[in-house]
Amino acid sequence: MEELSHFINGQRVAGTSGRFADVYNPALGEVQSKVPLASKAELDAAVAAAAEAQPAWGATNPQRRARVMMEFVRLLNRDMDKLAEALSAEHGKTLPDAKGDVQRGLEVIEFCIGAPHLLKGEFTDGAGPGIDMYSMRQPLGVVAGITPFNFPAMIPMWKMGPALACGNAFILKPSERDPSVPLMLAELMQEAGLPDGVLQVVNGDKEAVDAILDNPTIQAIGFVGSTPIAEYIYGRGCSNGKRVQCFGGAKNHMIVMPDADMDQAADALVGAGYGAAGERCMAISVAVPVGDETADRLIEKLVPRVEKLKVGPYTAGADVDYGPLVTGAAKERVLGLIGSGVEQGADLVVDGRDFALQGYESGFFLGPSLFDKVTTDMEIYRQEIFGPVLSTVRAKSYDEALGYAMDNEYGNGTAIFTRDGDTARDFASRINIGMIGINVPIPVPLAYHTFGGWKKSGFGDLNQHGPDAFRFYTRTKTVTSRWPSGLKEGGEFHFKQMD
Ligand code: NAD
């Protein structure tokens, strides 16, 4: 069985802790490799080496650092098929979706090529007599990223791109479920010209995460994953004096107004609800049709579309709409939640539980499930399901529908489908959620905007990628400078007015 590694000081390094996690091929339901789980000592050694490498990288001019990013983009494009194949084999998502995963990360790296511009700082000429004032953005030193299984290319790149472009050294602790692509990304960064030790990939579980949280050299942590872990990391990281941003789970509502194009809304819901087997933090998991008549029309349009979805292994290429869940445990959890929905009285209009695929009997596949008449007290509404399950909560009015999304504890993304500009504008203005789609079901902002949820979907002050990432991975130093003919008057004992 293949034994994966860490990536330390420019090369793959075997784990020494003696602890491993199984990495599955979810389509076959078989263990395909083992990933080492780092000890605290291994993590600390990787950080110490990164701290040695960082000053020279931080002193490398931003344009040269950007050139490494430029070359990295070329290599990502060169190896796109290889990366997508490795990604699908461990995650289970379809090949086109895996390429999208790489592509959305690559776009953030493209944005990072603009680092010299973003790091220019601010300058006031003549802030006072003979006085200039300037602010510069400096790297923090060694920073870390802890990432989830569902985007094993995109989210590591969202973290490492800006962190490295700003001149930091970066410790990546990827998900132990699909660690191969993060290792490949580190090798490509190396090939692109990144000096040894500036990017370290340390595989692991809670032990490695806790070591990151407690390591005094690490200045900042960017986390993406489930909300309970986000809260834990935010709390412990902040109390250890680090800068921390954590992005958590979601329960994204899509409001369907009576005037919406119902075919368009149904198509959007099917893609956003079931794509990647629902394992997306921006998946739509709750449809909220306004009015019973709208709900009936929507369900009527949804059922044939949902029943037609093709579920299968990534090796079937573009013929498959979505693949298996990531692990057997994830599948069991989703099955349990569907059962609870039935028990608590929701209408299971399409039941995906008995799905079977010849030749893949042990795979972690689930057919698509569609619930109608879900109420907000049910477990299937209260929990993030993270599976191919769409719930319909019927609302009597626009205000009631808006209230469901606003009262939900999560605030990652939401969408409204309507032909009415006034309603759409009101929705975008009043809703307490970070990313809004108007007739767009998955409103993931592009690399030059920022990505982040509100409420229990996001902890910390700054978003991911876009200009916020450059703020997160740098700190501001402001210099007040005077080059007068001489300082002859002696000391000053009060704050000087810049007159
Ligand atoms: P997860 O919380 O289980 O794991 C995320 C990371 O935390 C992994 O690296 C994991 O090793 C580590 N971890 C897990 N348990 C830990 C513990 N007890 N102590 C310390 N570290 C621990 O999340 P996941 O299942 O990999 O990913 C799915 C979740 O991520 C979903 O909730 C999804 O909504 C969320 N997500 C959010 C965003 C966003 O931007 N808001 C994006 C993608 C995924």
UniProtKB/TrEMBL annotation:
- Report the protein name in the record: methylmalonate-semialdehyde dehydrogenase (CoA acylating)
UniProt keyword annotation of Oxidoreductase present? yes
**Keyword NAD carried by entry:** yes
What PROSITE patterns does this protein's entry cite?
Answer: ALDEHYDE_DEHYDR_CYS (PS00070)
Keywords on this record? NAD, Oxidoreductase
Q: Which InterPro entries match?
A: Ald_DH/histidinol_DH (IPR016161), Ald_DH_C (IPR016163), Ald_DH_CS_CYS (IPR016160), Ald_DH_N (IPR016162), Aldehyde_DH_dom (IPR015590), MeMal-semiAld_DH (IPR010061)
Q: What is its EC number?
A: 1.2.1.27
For this protein, the record's Pfam families field holds: Aldedh
Give the enzyme's main class according to its UniProt record, as a single word: oxidoreductase
Q: Specify the superkingdom.
A: Bacteria
Q: Where is the Aldehyde dehydrogenase domain?
A: 16-479
Native organism: Rhodovulum iodosum
